[in-house]
Amino acid sequence: MNELNYCYKYPHPAVTADCVIFGFDGVSIKILLIQRGIEPYKNKWALPGGFVCIDESAEECARRELEEETGLKGVTVEQFHTFSDVERDPRERVITVAHYALVRLADVVGGDDANAAQWFSQTEIPALAFDHDKILQLALERLKERICFEPIGFELLAEVFTMTELQNLYEAILSIKFDRRNFANKMLKLGILTEAEPRREGTARRIATKYKFNAAKYAELKQRGFRLEF
Amino acid sequence: MNELNYCYKYPHPAVTADCVIFGFDGVSIKILLIQRGIEPYKNKWALPGGFVCIDESAEECARRELEEETGLKGVTVEQFHTFSDVERDPRERVITVAHYALVRLADVVGGDDANAAQWFSQTEIPALAFDHDKILQLALERLKERICFEPIGFELLAEVFTMTELQNLYEAILSIKFDRRNFANKMLKLGILTEAEPRREGTARRIATKYKFNAAKYAELKQRGFRLEF
DNA sequence: AAAATTTTGCGTAAAATTAACGCATTTTAT
DNA sequence: ATAAAATGCGTTAATTTTACGCAAAATTTT
After folding, report:
1. Nearest Cα to Cα of residue A173 among A112, A100, A113, A96
2. How far apart are the CA of B92 and the nearest CA of chain A, in angstroms?
3. Nucleotide nearest the Cα atom of A230 (by C1')
4. pLDDT over 90 (residue A65)
C-alpha cells in the first residue's frame, strides 16, 4: 500500500501543527523538544507536532500530536502564527500552524517512556529541524508580550506559590529585575491572588506567605474591562 | 480538462488566505468586501481572498488576491489567525490564514472596475459567506488591541493630519471618548509626531496644526524598548 | 451682518501611580 | 556560631494621569 489515493484538481499543500511547550523549574524557562526518529532531519531535535488530519482542527491536531510524542495530555494550546514559506520542508510544500502552551513541570515527569522527549533551558537548545528555531524564537517573543497583559504565568507554577516564586518567573521570562516590595504591591493590588493557607501564629512566623491564583476574580475583573500591565 | 492531476498518499486540505481591509472616512471605520460571483455563497458578500498557490506564501497570496479582487496594490497585510474548523467550507476541507491591513481610503477610489468591491461601515455589514463574520469579528478585536501599542493608526489617515482627526480615529476604533487636551498631550509626549507645516504668523492663527507621523523617530524609540499605550 | 456655536491653543491643580529605598526579624547556608 | 539571604511592613519623592478653565479664532446659524 503506497498508492496515491487522494487526488485534487489543483496542488494542495500539507498542513501541520507544531507546539512550543514552556515549563519553569523555579529558575529558568524550559522548552520541551523531541528527537526525530525518521528522515528528514533524523535524530535532530524538533518541536512536537505533525500532520493535521482531514477531520480535525489545527488545535486538535496539536494536542493529539503532543500527547503521542511526549505523553502530555489535556494541555490547552493556543496558536500564535502560521508559517507558510514555500521551502520550509524538503519533502513537499508544508504549511504549519504553530501553537504554544504553558505546563507545570511537576505534571510531566513519567510521561515520556518510548519517546525521546526532553526539557531544555534556553541556553542549551540545539539547532532544530526545519525552521523550528524561527518558530521557537517567535514563541518566546509572544510569551513575553502575553505575560505582561494576561495572567498566564500561573500556569507554570504549582497551584500554591510564594510571591518570590512568582517574581522569579516574571524575571526569567522578561529578563528584568523587579524591586521585591514594589512587585508584591503591584501583584496584590491587582486583586487576583488569594492567600492559600492561614498564616501561622505565635512561634513560627516569617515563613513566606503562600498564594493561589484566583481565576474567578480575574474573570470578573476582565469582564469589567480591566487590563494587566508590567 | 477537469482531471484530478495532483495526488497524495494522505488527504490534504486546501489552504486559502483572506483579508480584512480597514479604512477610515474621518468618522467611522470601513471594511472592504467583495460580492462573490460563483457558488458557493454566490452573490453573498465576503472577505477578499483565495487559494494559496503552491509556490507562494500565505501573505503573498493575500496580497495577490487582494489586488485581483479589489484592485488594491502593494498593501502590507499581516496575518492574525488561522481558521481550521473542519466544516468551514461546503466544498472541501479548507483552512484559511486570515490577514488584515489598514489603507487610506483616498488611495483606493478607481481601483474597482470590473469587480463588485465595496466599503461598508460596521453597522451596514451584511451576513457574510463562510465563517467570514467570525473572521471579521476577531480582526476588529485585534485592531483594537494593536492600535493601543503600535502606531498603526497613521496608515488610515492622510499623510498630513490634524490632532482632531487623529483623535477621531482612535475614538472610532476604541469606542472611547478622550479629553481633547489630554489626548494631544499624550500623543505629543510620545515624540513620534512632527509638525508638517510651519504655523502661520500674524493675522490668521487658530488654524489647526498639521502633523505627520515620524516613522524614523518611532523606529528609534522602539529599538530602545519603548511602548505605546492608551 | 450679527449672534451663537464649535474648534483650537495653552494652560493649572488635584489625584493617583510609580519608583527607590529603610529596617528589624527570621530562616537558611557555611 | 556566624554570615548571608529572605520576609513582612512600611515611607517618601518623583512622575503620571485626570479633570477642567479660559480666551481667541473659525464656523455655522439666524
Report:
1. A100
2. 10
3. C18
4. yes
- Of A222, A81, A67, the closest CA to residue A152 belongs to A222
Amino acid at A143: L
How far is it, in rounded angstroms, from Cα A4 to Cα A98? 28
Q: Tell the residue number behind the cell numbers 467550507, with chain if given.
A: B89
List bases in chain C with any atom under 7 Å of a protein Cβ.
Answer: 7-12, 18-22, 25-27
DSSP B111-134: --SSS-EEEEEGGGPPPBSTTHHH
Our CA dihedral for B148, B154, B156, B161, rounded to 10 degrees, sits at 130
CATH entry 1.10.10.10 includes domain A153-224: yes
Delimiting residues of CATH 1.10.10.10 domain(s) in chain A: 153-224
Q: Could you tell me the CATH superfamily of domain A14-138?
A: Nucleoside Triphosphate Pyrophosphohydrolase (3.90.79.10)
Given a contact cutoff of 8 angstroms between Cβ atoms, the answer to whether B207 and B200 are in contact is yes
Pairing state between β B78-83 and B94-102: antiparallel
Task: State how far the Cα of A198 lies from the Cα of A207, in Å rounded to an integer.
Answer: 12
CA distance A45 to A63: 19
DSSP letters of A116-146? -EEEEEGGGPPPBSTTHHHHHHHHHHHHHHH
pTM: 0.94
d(CA A215, CA A217): 5
For residue A205, give the nucleotide whose C1' atom is nearest its CA.
C26
> Cell numbers 486570515 correspond to what residue?
B98
C-alpha cell recorded at residue A195: 492567600
Residue with cell 515620524: B214
CB B205 within 8 A of CB B199: yes
Cβ–Cβ contacts within 10 Å for residue A210, how many?
18
Strand D and A163 CB separated by under 7 Å: yes
pLDDT 10s digits, B179-216: 999 999 999 999 999 998 766 554 445 688 999 999 99
Residue ranges matching CATH 3.90.79.10 in chain B: 14-138
Strand boundaries in chain B, DSSP class E: 6-8, 14-24, 29-35, 45-46, 49-51, 78-83, 94-102, 117-121, 160-162, 193-195, 210-213
Per residue in A106-164, pLDDT tens?
776 554 454 689 999 999 999 999 999 999 999 999 999 999 999 999 999 999 999 99
3-state secondary structure of A18: strand
Flag whether residue B141 sits within 8 Å of chain A, measured between CB atoms. no
